[in-house]
């Protein structure tokens, strides 16, 4: 039973085959969020704070911290500052996310606990720079299954890339429990086999390589309507195949509910305790919103 | 590739491993619907008509027709009447549902096409009475995996019961393609292993016995809050395990959307054609409802 332990000074999160699914909150990422990028660049981290608190409140067991897309030169300092700030606000462990090795190093330098480094690829040069850093800090790492040749459309080639990263990590003293593989999710609208590919690959990664897995789940629905409906179904089906964590938005209620139902159905929510508690909270929220509406005299009650 | 073909005079539905998931509409069933029972007893089938049309409109590819719980003596005539009426209204093939063999016989007598008989169990006496009827009419049959000893809590015992029914059916000349096995779904709130049991059993039924499967999906969430959320996740996960049809309520939007997303992700909705069409219809419905609300002057738009 492979268990990947990530920690903060006060909390431990276990990603594992027999553990509840781990949601790594994806919101703190200025890529594609112009306002957030502008603010972070100017040293205004108020939105980062709000995003951190809101995601933990919504059930994220970990948070991903990314400071990309602002300025390559400033990224190490900004990422380190964001990591420090978020650790002062919330107890959940963090994933330190950058394609700039110096930024990963700066983030790890200030991080307290055992972080998840996001990410290393199968490119030789990237492995040679990222893996020593992961080993030095005793961290865990997300291994993305592409290499110098790009992202293969053949999931079995992606399996081989993942295997190579796991083996190389071992050479640096990083055990396979500390390598969490991202099988890479393609948009199903562009590639009809995208779902089956991921399910097949996740199952092989679990059964043959014995590693935990994570993914950016929302990519599956890119370009299609009612994305949340697809994302929720994708997550439960990927959980069936063996996916043990995802970088996702816990504020998306459908996806969050799908994951919780998945945990319940796979036997990872004993006596449905968490399901029942979450349903109660949702009911209370609904009643509060509904009584606010009535206070304003609308007839929304009939809808 | 096992294909179970069910037909009406104008339409063929294929339940199969490489086919879109088949929803068998469950609404026409007076059990637990007092008003419907009363009406059907008095020869008023207006609600049956409305339920038939609404379920087909909502996407049911087949309808289950049940006239149980009214009167054992009258059930054959009432079921036959319901079958005749529904066949005059909608084109989809039917599942004829009764625990009273005479009622199954009466329904089959008037049915036009190849029906699905719901159901036979592994009890010797039941098999001896139902299977000849199925064979005589060249119908298909739902095989429920319990026998004289009841419903085993061990899914591997339920597998053996299903296997025995398939083998006995073969003795009567019914090919295994025409036996659709119901693995029996227990409430997850009462039995924490209920989800994993069904997934395990459905996979064995598909891989070892090579049969199609169906189930009453909503039983999984019995007694728990937010049942639709559990049902939707259960259906997609069961589809991953190999489930090919379900007796369900197509008017439940979450479960319907989950099934459609499941089809999309398993590659049974080429170019996402059906997903996109369904999303358009939902959007139109939402706009219509929203403009009706505005016409009444409520402030529901702000919710």
Sketch the major β-sheet of chain A: 8 strands, parallel
Q: What portion of the residues of chain A fall into strands of 2 or more residues?
A: 5-15%
Secondary-structure element series of chain A: EEEHHEHEHEHEHEHEHEHH
The count of helical stretches of chain A stands at 10
Helix content of chain A: 40-55%
Under the CATH scheme, which class of chain A?
Alpha Beta
Proper CATH architecture of chain A: Alpha-Beta Barrel
Task: Give an account of the 3D structure.
Two copies of one chain form a homodimer. With 303 residues, the first copy, chain A, is an alpha/beta fold. Chain A has one domain (3-268): Dihydropteroate synthase-like (TIM Barrel, Alpha-Beta Barrel). In chain A, 47% of the residues lie in helices and 14% in strands. Chain A contains ten helices and ten strands. Chain A has helices at 34-41, 46-57, 75-89, 101-110, 124-137, 155-171, 194-209, 227-241, 253-265, 273-295, and strands at residues 3-7, 12-16, 22-25, 62-66, 94-97, 116-120, 140-144, 179-182, 212-213, 245-248. An eight-stranded parallel beta sheet of chain A has the order 9-8-7-6-5-4-3-10. Chain A has a two-stranded antiparallel ribbon with strand order 1-2. Chain A is globular and about 60 Å long. Residues 296-303 of chain A have low confidence and may be disordered. The interface between A and B is large, with 48 and 48 residues.
């Amino acid at each position: 039973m492979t268990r990947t332990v990530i920690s903060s000074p006060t909390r431990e999160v276990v990603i594992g085959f027999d553990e509840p699914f781990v949601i790594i909150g994806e919101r703190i990422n200025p890529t594609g969020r112009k306002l957030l990028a502008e603010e972070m660049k100017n040293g205004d981290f108020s939105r980062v704070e709000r995003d951190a608190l809101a995601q933990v409140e919504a059930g994220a067991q970990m948070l991903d911290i990314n400071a990309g897309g602002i300025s390559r030169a400033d990224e190490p300092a900004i990422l380190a500052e964001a990591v420090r700030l978020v650790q002062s606000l919330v107890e959940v462990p963090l994933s330190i996310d950058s394609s700039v090795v110096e930024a990963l190093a700066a983030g790890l330098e200030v991080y307290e606990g055992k972080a998840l480094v996001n990410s290393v690829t199968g490119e030789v040069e990237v492995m040679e720079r990222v893996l020593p850093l992961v080993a030095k800090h005793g961290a865990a790492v997300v291994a993305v299954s592409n290499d110098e040749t790009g992202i293969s459309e053949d999931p079995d080639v992606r399996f081989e890339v993942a295997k190579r990263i796991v083996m190389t990590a071992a050479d640096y003293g990083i055990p396979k429990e500390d390598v969490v593989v991202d099988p890479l999710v393609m948009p199903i609208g562009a590639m009809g086999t995208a779902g089956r590919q991921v399910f097949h690959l996740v199952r092989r990664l679990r059964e043959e390589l014995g590693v935990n897995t994570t993914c950016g789940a929302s990519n599956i629905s890119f370009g299609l309507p009612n994305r949340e409906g697809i994302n929720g179904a994708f997550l439960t089906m990927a959980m069936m195949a063996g996916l043990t964590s995802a970088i996702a938005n816990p504020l998306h209620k459908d996806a969050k509910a799908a994951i919780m139902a998945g945990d319940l159905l796979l036997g990872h929510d004993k006596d449905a305790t968490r399901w029942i508690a979450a349903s109660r909270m949702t009911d209370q929220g609904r009643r509060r919103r509904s009584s606010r509406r009535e206070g304003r005299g609308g007839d929304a009650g009939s809808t």
